[in-house]
Queue: 3 jobs
Job 1
Amino acid sequence: MRSKNVFVISKKDIQSIALKKFGEKLNLEELEQIKKGVEFGLECWEEVVIEAISEVLEYRKKEIK
């Protein structure tokens, strides 16, 4: 495996989206606000991962049969 992370949203990713969608970059304070919003939106990340694992294992079982 190349990276220990499964999913990462970098500041560069956020700035790229801000430029592409809104035509401007964000300052450090704005990036902190974005970070808090994303963290709030991902509070249930464990349930999302559990569901994704469940789907993968279900697919695997179907492939074996």
Note: The chain has a mean pLDDT of 93.
Job 2
Amino acid sequence: MIIVNVKEGENIERALKRYKQKHRRIGVMKELRNRKHFAKPSVERRSEILKARYKLKKMGAFAQ
């Protein structure tokens, strides 16, 4: 649970902005998406390798 302390006389928009920043920083949505489905460790590793290959290919340093 995210807690944002609102200071005396603080604008609600400012407090909401701090809440959104904190929400983004701790990665709540990313964690929820990861927990939606289970992926085997071997599948996760394979996707990481494919992602790395794609990035290298985009950079023009892929030699096979």
Note: Residues 12-59 form one domain.
Job 3
Amino acid sequence: MVIDLHVVVPGGGDSASLDRLLDASIEAGLDGICLLGPGTPPPVEAARGGRFAGRISLYFGIEFPLERGRLLWIPENPDSLAGGEWRTVAGDQPTGASVMAVRERCGGVIVAAHPYERLAGPALLDAVYGLRGIDGVIAATAPLDRVRNKMAIEAAQRMNLAVLGGSGSAAGPAEVGVAATLFPVKLSDQASLVAAIRRKDAWTIEMLSRPDQMEPEEETSGERDRESGRGSGRSGRGPRGAYGPGDRHRGPPENAHQRQTIETDANRRTAPADERSAEQGAHRRRRRRGGGPHGSGESGGGDNRPGPDGGAA
């Protein structure tokens, strides 16, 4: 199943806005979508009872904005979002520690939203290494920023966490599904989704919409210069602050079947033969990058570097 794990539903949105979001998800070729409310529950009942109910699998959670960065909570039972316990535990101004307490008290998984992406405000950056107990990292989002995505993937690998994909905090309906997560088995309910994330049983995928993104994965001299810091700013931009070709997604995907799979050593898993053959047939047009399926159980080595507080647990 291909699921966009990071779709934020703005507070106060009407049913028409929700319908546009779900319609865009279906048009993007997604099998499922995780709707997150910004610090509050998403419109669970409206989504379940809307005109698109039954056409796409729905999952629900909350995006907690911290002083720096964002954490996503996906409970095993979406009905628990309607309760008040998680509000008491998270507090009026959530921190990394209080959000982790929500996981301990109410179950589910905690995922760090893309730690190096600044589009939605101050980012976690290397403070992600201080978040002990999280279950995964959103490492690919709609902008398809290659430099920052690689940094997020490296962080997830070193922490031995699931490497995941989703639209991101700043994405709108036109960008839903540009980055998503591939689960090699059918997820019957939200508890199955949570269990798969814990097992690191997932691939990160990106939609490809430009010819240059279909080229072999060979770094150009410009990309090498950006990563080594030559001729670039701290944020991976060129001398004038603009992203170079291939660093940013410039529009919605032209073909929902043109995807690339980002496979990482930290999340490697060997699927049964029937699953592998099915995935190879369904996704043969994806271009693979790096390792293999998730879930190897190999230690990523971790990182004891102390990051800025930023609400880190």
Note: Residues 2-209+253-290 form a domain with the TIM Barrel fold (CATH 3.20.20.140).
